[in-house]
Design goal:
The chain is of the alpha+beta class and 302 residues long. It is built from 5 helices and 17 strands. Helix content is 16%, strand content 32%. Strands 1, 2, 3, 4, 5, 6, 7, 8 and 9 form a 9-stranded mixed beta sheet that branches. The chain has a 6-stranded mixed beta sheet with strand order 10-11-12-13-16-17.
């Protein structure tokens, strides 16, 4: 098979990284992007490592951002987020990635798609996945986005220059309503734990929230602990599929199985001592609550 070549930039955004691609370098029809972007990221890979591409074997490292001219008067650029499945030859457009959104503005500036005023650039980003506007603000110098700085975020080994994101009117990004079912909490029946109280909220991305204790967890488990707990992951998938139906994302639970990007599953618990992936200890007095998130079937690492 003849290899193809397209211009792209490999960037980190927050605690994710992926390919940044101009829309002009892809087919006009997004339905024709799958083979190209899956090939670029190394999917499908039955071993889950994506060694034949730029992906990193987990959902937060298997992402593509497609950037082009704005289709709206209230935005400077269009940005389409693409989640590339790892073990499947499939891409998903149903969600946005907040982490990779932070890379979009600097990419657009470096590529000459937008300008700046003095040493600050403000970019109005139209995310086509959610039809929402994100305002990105960051420093520039000598015609490039500033990279070096002393800003630190957990999960990233080095410091860098900060990027501020303002998600304007984020409610209803996936479903059209902040509370898709019209209530703040309700019960979902499960085969192993009976009825569980959940909250279904759609702010920037659709998510279903459940107490960690209600599914037999402490709430401070590390991703590796969750990955090894097939019983809990199976239970959370039951909740996710039913929430998907109730939120109007998928018509049936079997259909929801194929819509893996949303809703996210968020495990919440009261403040408690915990340990980060780097081994740092967090005192309960330093936080108000603890959260763990399941994204595309995998525990999110940051």
């Amino acid at each position: 098979m003849t290899q193809l070549s397209i211009p792209a930039v490999f960037m980190r955004g927050g605690t994710s990284k992926g390919l940044m691609v101009h829309a002009r370098d892809l087919p006009d029809d997004p339905d024709k992007w799958s083979a190209l972007l899956c090939g670029a990221m190394g999917s499908p890979d039955q071993y889950g490592r994506q060694l034949n591409g730029m992906g990193g074997g987990i959902s937060s490292l298997s992402k593509v951002c497609v950037i082009g001219p704005s289709s709206r008067e209230d935005a400077d650029i269009d940005y389409t987020f693409v989640q590339v499945m790892i073990k499947e030859a499939r891409i998903d457009f149903r969600s946005n990635c907040g982490n990779m959104s932070s890379a979009v503005g600097p990419f657009a500036f470096d590529e000459g798609l937008v300008g700046a005023v003095n040493d600050t650039c403000v970019v109005r980003i139209h995310n086509t996945n959610t039809s929402k506007i994100i305002r990105s603000t960051f420093a520039v110098e000598d015609g490039r986005a500033v990279v070096d700085g002393d800003f630190i975020i957990p999960g990233v080994a080095a410091s860098g220059s900060p990027v501020r994101l303002d998600f304007l009117e984020p409610g209803g990004a996936s479903t059209g309503r902040l509370l898709p079912t019209g209530v703040t909490s309700e019960l979902i029946d499960t085969p192993t734990h009976g009825p569980l109280e959940v909250s279904m909220v759609d702010a920037a991305n659709a998510a279903v929230f459940v107490r960690a204790a209600d599914v037999g967890l402490t709430g401070v488990e590390l991703p590796s602990d969750l990955e090894a707990n097939d019983e809990v992951l199976g239970l959370l998938e039951v909740l996710r599929r039913e929430a998907s139906v109730r939120m109007g994302i998928a018509p049936t639970a079997p259909t929801a199985a194929a819509v893996t990007s949303i809703p996210f599953v968020c495990l919440v618990s009261a403040a408690a001592p915990s340990t980060t992936l780097s081994g740092d200890h967090i005192a309960s007095s330093d936080v108000d609550l603890v959260a763990r998130v399941i994204s595309n079937g995998q525990p999110h690492r940051a």
